[in-house]
Design a protein that fits this description.
The complex is a heterotrimer of chains A (294), B (428) and C (281).
Chain A (H helix, E strand, L loop, with lengths): L1 H17 L14 H12 L17 E12 L14 H4 L23 E5 L18 E3 L1 E2 L2 E2 L3 E5 L4 E4 L6 E5 L3 E5 L4 E4 L9 E4 L7 E7 L4 E3 L5 E9 L2 E8 L3 E2 L2 E5 L2 E5 L3 E5 L5 E9 L5
Parallel strand pairs in A: 1-20, 3-7, 6-12
Antiparallel strand pairs in A: 1-14, 2-13, 2-15, 4-5, 7-10, 8-9, 8-11, 11-12, 15-16, 15-19, 17-18, 17-20
Chain B lengths: L1 H10 L5 H21 L12 H11 L5 H15 L10 H4 L7 H7 L13 H5 L1 H4 L38 H10 L15 H28 L7 H11 L2 H17 L1 H4 L19 H16 L5 H4 L14 H7 L8 H9 L24 H10 L15 H13 L20
Helix pairs in contact in B: 4-10, 6-10, 9-10, 10-12, 14-19, 18-19
Chain C lengths: L1 H24 L18 H32 L16 H21 L1 H9 L3 E4 L12 E4 L4 E6 L2 E6 L12 E4 L1 E5 L4 E7 L4 E5 L4 E5 L5 E5 L5 E7 L12 E6 L1 H15 L11
The chains are: A mainly beta (294), B mainly alpha (428), C alpha+beta (281).
Chain lengths: 294, 428, 281
């Protein structure tokens, strides 16, 4: 009898408190209320907050071109086969296998579809050729349910024509900002208004395996590597430190140990700093170890 | 409770009465202590966005713990307060008064007050059990609902008059709160709340959206900063926790999206009155022709058939996910990645579900059944979902033909057998 | 102590009757709105009469039993009755009496309520037509039932209402849809079709003395004749889930003219197809 009593004594409160276990601890963060108050006072104060002495940075001493090549050291990673769940007659004619091609390795290990761009370049330093307001049209086409340009870079306001060369309808969904149907054989215009800090995914909701990426920049200091891994960004401001960001579809920001111009380097968060010499082409040849893609 | 105690008290019948009393009180006090200190009394707090932190930490290779996480939430608490005491610090500079009224927030926020003092704690009384105190769509009942309740933190809303990528207008949000969303668990609050209270709820939803969007911006921005050495930490805090970054850069941009929402609503000239049976100009044969054209577009240039299916049953493309899910996974196919899925669920995401195109034969229109509502759905697409906008090559007349077709589908013979007998009681 | 307990038992009928009487007669705090709500249905009094009859019947029996209980407790208090206990071994007459009286009472209630039940649940309004024999009021008369003015669908947690529209038939493309907002014409027999989309609900119009469970998969008809204009509650009287309290609707009873105007307005709102941005203020 006594045994049962103690059992009930322990079980009762246990059962009672079990009801309380709501969300796990990690769902909440304890913040220091004094720090909150202090910050709140700072934010509520009029004026533009902390007056930091904006030192007038020295402008560029000229312009230079950054060019080079991204290559893979080792054997390319296995390709991912896509599941063609709709319109197989058009998207996979003859029942052929379709691959994601997210790691596109060209001749001599050249890595295509890598995005490199200069981030946060002072607007006053931008060379005339790279200023916003480009009006030449970019054609973005799709055939056999594949976006023909896998990674496309445009400037804000630059017109892009989205073609559909397939006999089925597609739609173009750009992350969270655009989503429009493109009837078979037709085209729709697209203009981006907002700069992006990393490429945004473009997809087709009708054929969800279709993937491409879009980078939108205010200035023209960006490039997407070609099939052989080469790229060129002309007229970069020289003599000032620039931050470059490097992006690859499977890796997001390219980070880790790699070889730059023959010497070992480590990139963090997909970015590196560099100061260019004026009126001189600067080489940037990067070799990524194959292990990075696993 | 006492019934439980009965057997053990009688079982101790032989022992010392004093001891019996002590045990009685000990037993009684345990649940009482639980009652006083336990779940009921603690004031709820905003839940952190673990899913988004997990996403950013994977992208930028940083850890959201310790000082980095604390700084994000110190800033967020300083800017937006707590569920009991919402504020928008620095809001005047960011122009937040154009988006919401802080008095309204206090009407909607806080704990639920007794019935006869109704009109306080509205959000927690009527909304939080589905949408969560944080507005993250993770309230206690969320798991049991299909579709899941809306997570406000991306600032994305489905049924609205503005195009994809833009914020909803006040009228859009008010319409949803007033009329509910037919076909989902969102009920109508038209008779439950007066218009002032509905305004307060709408403002509070916008507040939660602003807070959620700010939280996301802060998290992704914080990932760019370093916390490795004490000097780096000090430098980061000086930069990140400054008025320029928090108010001017982050909040300002988000508030701007919301203030401009009302100007971005899609205007419509209205469909030809010959299609409107309540108009004197109504012409059935014109309507029939329009429906036939709409049907052509459904299978042709509108490409509706690809998702809504050849018989409008919504059985076309059913393997996709909505933006709230794809925000973490990036693409639909990655939901199958066990490691990623596990990380998502561990971080507190609801189990992903496919988004299914609407079955057009049911005559249930979530965003409203007025022709203008259907027009907005077709013309603009549905934000946050795979539903695209109609091609810009379609004219307004084309869109109205599609609208007329969609509105006619539930009354076709495929949906309603022609001679369904009316219900008659046999027992008479 | 002894007789204290019997007084406690006496308090039950006294307080019970007191609370009922106070609720019936006063309409002030704390008993405000605790008696029957205003009756605005033509046949509502039938239900009220039934309710009152049964209340008085059970009230008399309740008071009687309570007093008897008190009397026994008082009279046979252990402290005052020190003599030996006397046992009774059954009384045939008593058993017959206390079986026949309740049986007769139940039979009376069963017969008394028959018309009320038939009116509320069976005799759906309609027009009687002569059957095959060509004569009225014969066995084979047909009834052409009055069509429902609207369909009310309970779902978690709201009432979706669908008016028959111009053609008078629910389920066609000219139906007018509202939610939680039921308007009805006064002084006309109205028929509503009620159903449920998900779980058990109960369609309750307290002011019309109408309450009917709605069962998923069943279409049911309810009918009544409102006799007063005004605005009254629609509630759900079956716990249907965590949002049960949210199923609060409004029934507005108005003149035929106002009702038609309202329905036309709703129809126009539902046909809204244009939208213009408001002019810059």
């Amino acid at each position: 009898m006594l045994k049962r009593f103690w059992m009930i004594c322990t079980l009762l409160p246990l059962a009672f408190f079990a009801g309380c276990s709501g969300s796990p601890e990690a769902d909440f963060v304890q913040v220091n209320s004094a720090a909150v108050e202090e910050l709140r006072t700072k934010l509520a104060s009029s004026g533009s907050g902390t007056e930091t002495d904006q030192q007038e940075e020295a402008g560029p001493s000229g312009y230079a071109t950054l060019k080079g090549r991204f290559a893979l050291d080792g054997s390319p990673p296995p390709q991912i086969k896509l599941d063609i769940s709709k319109d197989p007659a058009i998207c996979a004619p003859g029942g052929k296998d379709v691959f994601a091609n997210d790691v596109a390795v060209g001749p001599n290990g050249g890595l295509a579809n890598i995005v490199i761009f200069a981030n946060g370049v002072n607007e006053d330093w931008v060379h005339d050729s790279a200023k916003p307001g480009r009006t030449d049209e970019v054609i973005f086409d799709q055939k056999e349910c594949v976006f023909l340009t896998h990674v496309v870079g445009i400037q804000t306001g630059q017109p892009m024509t989205v073609l559909n060369s397939d006999p089925v309808a597609h739609n173009l969904k750009v992350s969270t900002t655009f989503n429009q149907t493109i009837p078979e054989g037709k085209s729709v215009p697209f203009v981006a208004s907002k700069e992006l800090n990393s490429p945004e995914k473009m997809s087709c909701s009708i054929h969800p395996w279709m993937t491409a990426y879009l980078l939108v920049r205010n200035d023209g200091y960006f490039a997407v590597t070609a099939e052989d891994g080469s790229f060129e960004i002309p007229n970069l401001p020289a003599g000032v430190e620039l931050e470059f960001r490097v992006w690859h579809e499977r890796l997001n920001g390219i980070k880790g140990d790699l070889q730059v111009n023959g010497s070992a380097e480590t990139w963090k968060k997909g970015r590196f700093e560099m100061t260019l010499e004026p009126s001189q082409d600067q080489e940037l040849n990067v070799v990524l170890p194959a292990a990075m893609f696993n | 409770m006492l019934c439980y105690l009965q057997p053990c008290l009688t079982s101790l019948g032989e022992s010392n009465p004093m001891k019996r009393l002590r045990i009685f009180w000990a037993l009684l006090s345990m649940p009482m202590i639980g009652l006083v200190t336990g779940c009921g009394t603690e004031s709820p707090d905003f839940r952190v966005n673990n899913v988004y932190m997990e996403k950013i930490s994977r992208e930028l290779d940083v850890k959201f713990a310790g000082q980095r996480q604390e700084d994000v939430y110190t800033a967020l608490t300083a800017m937006f307060g707590t569920p009991d005491l919402p504020v928008v610090t620095g809001g005047e500079d960011a122009g937040v008064s154009d988006v919401l009224s802080v008095e309204n927030l206090h009407l909607a926020a806080g704990p639920v007050i007794k019935d006869y003092e109704a009109g306080k704690g509205l959000y927690r009384q009527h909304c939080a059990h589905c949408h969560g105190v944080t507005g993250d769509g993770y309230g206690p009942t969320a798991k049991f609902l299909n579709p899941y309740p809306r997570d406000f933190r991306m600032g994305t809303f489905k049924f609205k008059s503005t195009p994809v990528g833009y914020r909803p207008t006040d009228d859009d949000l008010t319409r949803i709160v007033r009329n509910g969303i037919n076909g989902t668990a969102m009920p109508s609050f038209k008779e439950m709340l007066d218009s002032g209270q509905i305004d307060a709820i709408v403002d509070y939803v916008k507040y939660l959206a602003l807070r959620g969007q700010t939280e996301r911006s802060l998290i992704s921005l914080s990932g760019d900063y370093g916390y490795e050495t004490p000097e780096e930490t000090t430098e980061t805090q000086a930069e990140l926790l400054s008025k320029e970054v928090l108010v001017d850069e982050i909040l300002g941009a988000i508030v701007e999206e919301w203030t401009s929402a009302s100007e971005t609503a899609t205007e419509a000239e209205g469909r030809d009155p010959v299609y409107d049976f309540s108009s004197p100009e109504f012409d059935q044969s014109e309507l029939d022709e329009s429906i036939a054209r709409g049907q052509q577009l459904y299978y042709g240039a509108g490409a509706c058939v690809t998702c809504h299916g050849p018989t409008q049953l919504g059985d076309g493309q059913t393997t996709d996910y909505d933006n709230w899910t794809k925000d973490f996974f990036g693409e639909a196919a990655k939901v199958a990645d066990a490691e990623l899925l596990d990380a998502y669920l561990t971080a507190g995401g609801l189990p992903p579900r496919n988004i299914i195109p609407r079955n057009l034969r049911q005559g249930v229109y979530r965003g409203g059944r007025r022709p203008i509502d259907i027009y907005w759905r077709v013309k603009n697409g549905i934000d946050g979902t795979p539903m695209p906008a109609a091609s810009s090559q379609l004219t307004d007349d084309d869109v109205w033909d599609i609208v007329n077709f969609v509105l006619s589908v539930p009354y076709q013979s495929l949906s309603q057998p022609a001679d369904m007998p009316e219900f008659v009681r046999d027992r008479n | 102590m002894g007789r204290f307990w019997s007084l406690l038992f006496l308090a039950v009928p006294v307080l019970g009757v007191g609370v009922f009487a106070a609720a019936m007669m006063t309409d002030s705090w704390p008993l405000h709105n605790h008696w029957l709500p205003r009756d605005v249905s033509e046949k509502g009094y039938v239900i009220d009469n039934l309710f009152n009859t049964i209340l008085y019947l059970t009230g008399v029996i309740f008071v009687g039993t309570s007093l008897a209980l008190f009397w026994f407790l008082w009279k046979y208090d252990g402290e005052k009755n020190l003599g030996p206990v006397r046992f009774l071994h059954g009384s045939h007459t008593l058993e017959v009496v206390w079986s026949i009286i309740p049986a007769a009472t139940l039979l009376f209630i069963a017969i008394y309520q028959m018309n009320a039940w038939a009116d509320a649940k069976i005799d759906r309004p309609g027009t009687r037509l002569a059957g095959a024999d060509g004569r009225m009021n014969t066995e084979d008369d047909l009834v052409e039932f009055q069509l429902p003015i609207a369909q009310v669908t309970g779902r978690q947690f709201e009432w979706r209402i669908r008016y028959a529209g111009r053609d008078g038939v629910v389920g066609t493309s000219d139906d007018v849809h509202t939610v939680n907002d039921l308007h009805l014409p006064v002084d006309e027999e109205v028929v509503l079709q009620i159903k449920s989309d998900d779980v058990l609900h109960s369609f309750f119009l307290p002011n019309c003395r109408l309450k009917q469970d709605v069962v998923p998969g069943m279409k049911q008809m309810v009918w009544f004749k409102p006799k007063e204009v005004g605005s009254f509650d629609i509630v759900c009287a079956e716990l249907c889930g965590w949002g049960h309290y949210k199923m609060k609707g409004r029934m507005t009873i108005q003149s035929r003219k106002d009702f038609d105007q309202w329905l036309t307005d709703q129809e126009r709102i539902q046909q809204e197809s244009s939208f213009a941005l408001s002019e810059e203020e």
